[in-house]
Amino acid sequence: MQQFKYTITDDLGIHARPAGMLVRLSMNYECELAIINSAGKLANLKKIFTVMGLGVKCSDIITVTANGVDEMEAITALERFFLQNL
Amino acid sequence: MDILSGQGVCGGIAIGKVAFYRKEHREAMEYYIEEPESEIRRLKNAIDTVLYKLQTLHKKALIQAGEDSAMIFEMHQIMLQDDDFQEAMRQPIRNERINAAWAVTKASETFAQNLESMEDDYMKERAADVRDIAGQLAVVLCGKSSGVKQLAQPSIIVAEDLAPSETVQLDKREVLAFVTQKGSVNSHTAILARTMNIPAVVNMDGDITDELDGEQAIVDGFTGTVYIRPDAETLAVFTEKQRQEAEKTFLLQQLKGKKAVTQDGKSIALYANISGPQDVASALENDAEGIGLFRSEFLYLGRETFPTEEEQFEAYKKVAQSMGDKKVIIRTIDIGTDKKAEYFGLEKEENPALGYRAIRLCLTNPALFETQLRALLRASAFGNIAIMFPMIIAVEEIVEIKSIISRVMDGLDAAGITYCPGVELGIMIETPAAVMISDLLAKEVDFFSIGTNDLTQYTLAIDRQNPELDKFYNPHHPAIMRMISQVVHSAHETGIWVGICGELGADPAMTKVFLNIGIDELSVCSGDILRLKKLIREMYALV
Hints:
The complex is a heterodimer of chains A (about 90) and B (about 550).
Chain A: E1 2-7, H1 16-26, E2 32-36, E3 42-44, H2 48-53, E4 61-67, H3 71-85
Helix pairs in contact in A: 1-3
Chain B: E1 2-5, E2 7-10, E3 13-20, H1 36-65, H2 67-81, H3 83-96, H4 100-116, H5 121-141, E4 155-159, H6 164-167, E5 175-180, H7 188-196, E6 200-202, E7 216-220, E8 225-228, H8 232-255, E9 269-274, H9 280-285, E10 291-295, H10 309-322, E11 327-331, H11 358-363, H12 366-379, E12 384-389, H13 395-414, E13 424-429, H14 432-436, H15 438-442, E14 447-450, H16 452-460, H17 478-494, E15 497-500, H18 511-517, E16 521-524, H19 526-538
Parallel strand pairs in B: 3-4, 4-5, 5-6, 9-10, 9-16, 10-11, 11-12, 12-13, 13-14, 14-15, 15-16
Antiparallel strand pairs in B: 1-8, 2-6, 3-7, 7-8
Helix pairs in contact in B: 1-2, 1-3, 1-5, 3-4, 4-5, 10-12, 12-13
């Protein structure tokens, strides 16, 4: 399993637009991808409604986990996405 | 004449006839079915059809409205492809034996209400997206084709609400304005209207009915006011306003891309002053050749903790990237006890204007200063950034700044982080001291920017906040003129450039003077750039 922690810097948190891009990116990978908010609630990164439902805001610390065949590539791509967009 | 008010979400004046948009009656028929599996197949086909349609709408929106608005349709596709959503539609078909359209309504209402129950306004708005998708599915399943009303002439579209799939199918050339009963500043109508630059008013007080169809109306997108059957006087007032708006737009078109050069060939660079990334769009729209002053204070104000290096880096990088290869001059923090920043822990001062502020704060708080410098240097790799230091009064200050920068650069080198090693360093000339030793200061930096607001205050010894002193205050005081002249001389003797970033820069009475003195750059409010450019292009510099 691979994972990273990240502090959201975007004012709007994970709002609808990056949520969509995040899901789209996650769907490229076979492994299981999840995002966990600071309250411990988990969302499947390939399911847009669960990601949006997390209500991640600016300054929240989230953890992203990847589990499976291409977990290394996935986690790297996701970390880059967060840095560039959130 | 009736006057209706709502929220203006895109500025502009529209005058024309109302075309009331009636929603397609999309209520799903509800009935029980015999064979769940074949109904589920029907659902799948409908989903595929709508997914394909969304792709088409996406393409259309890209052309009509640009990438940001087109994203809405990508979002719709991702939502429709969501496994949980699709399963929520299949389940009632399987378990309760209801028809697909009914199942879609049930599932989408659940998901929409979940979004509406979230705190975040932006998420609440997304409930409308879910309902729009459901509506499209229902239309396909019930066999109706949704027809968009053909407009006989350019009209003001009035509706209870408009879904993205509806607005994008309207021919932009036929739409004078949007008015919706519902909606908010974040709703799709608003977003699309702003991207297409069409006046729009949403969230109306009072009821909008189809009685408005065909009526003459005026839509004021600036104030959020709609005038139905306007009287002669109102019509005259708004026709004039519309003319002025058009003139402004025309000016914009005419001058965009043209250089700020006089009839006799003297040129000057016109840059914009900004207070944060949100101002960049306006700067670019008004054709700023660069950013002459990016006030970095916004990162530090209105909060309770210091901005992290990462936060700062992202903000500086964003602006640098948006400006492409145009120069972005970022001023290091200019905060003093007069600004609201409790967490800085600054003690109240008798004379904040003469006090512990700006570079003085930075040079006595290395952690604070170095964090900002690191963020700035890291961002320098992403665009054309220059760094500017405020309130400088001595060569020693610059020497110290440079040694700190050197230290920060070593740290970045050790960590293998890229930055632009030749990043331009400049100072604000805003104190009489700096003016008097400008010849010495010029040798230490790559450019000057004259902060005329503070320079005038300190030189004339007048507090600009005190109206009683107005009669003594002369922004064109010969002392200031001589100072500017001296600074330009010192700068050019050494071969560095000099600009003005204070209010005086935008003063049309001074433009000729500045051109003659030899000022290289004027940095002003974005809204003043085109006016200045027009003035410069029409004048002869030499008296």
